Amino acid sequence: MIPEIKPKEAWDLLKKDGQALLIDVRTPEEWEQVGYPELSSLGKEVIKISLQDRMGNRNVNFIRKLKKTVTQLDRPLLFLCLMGGRSRIAAILAKDEGYKNVYNIKEGFEGPANVNGVRGTIAGWLADNLPFTKKS
């Protein structure tokens, strides 16, 4: 079973544990158009490894890139996507490859849309007013 944490809990874990890493599995288009978490105040950077392309095709190199980037299997890895679906899949894949401390950020970066179809207002990293950036 993959532990599910909220964005504020993820922020607190990233702040508290110097070994914890945030892995954003959204697409480059999402990073460019919507933004991504800003972790510089914690002395960290977001690791960006897309799980899928914008058409929904699985990135066959996802695990290879993860293994190349994160070589220690016991480091806490916090996976993030739009609302928590792709990040949950990514966390399961990582756990299946031997990573021991994986978490899914269940509300994601933007969370669900409100009644007007706008994301980032109900739940998620943006709704929790956590630091983010839109720079490339």
Automatic annotation (TrEMBL):
Alphabetized InterPro entries for the sequence: Rhodanese-like_dom, Rhodanese-like_dom_sf, STR4-like
Sorted UniProt keywords: Transferase
SUPFAM superfamilies with a match to the protein in the record: Rhodanese/Cell cycle control phosphatase
The Rhodanese domain, residue ranges: 16-134
Domain of life of the native organism: Bacteria
MF annotations from Gene Ontology: transferase activity
PROSITE patterns, per the entry: RHODANESE_3 (PS50206)
Entries under Gene3D superfamilies matching the protein: Rhodanese-like domain
Name by which UniProt lists this protein: Sulfurtransferase
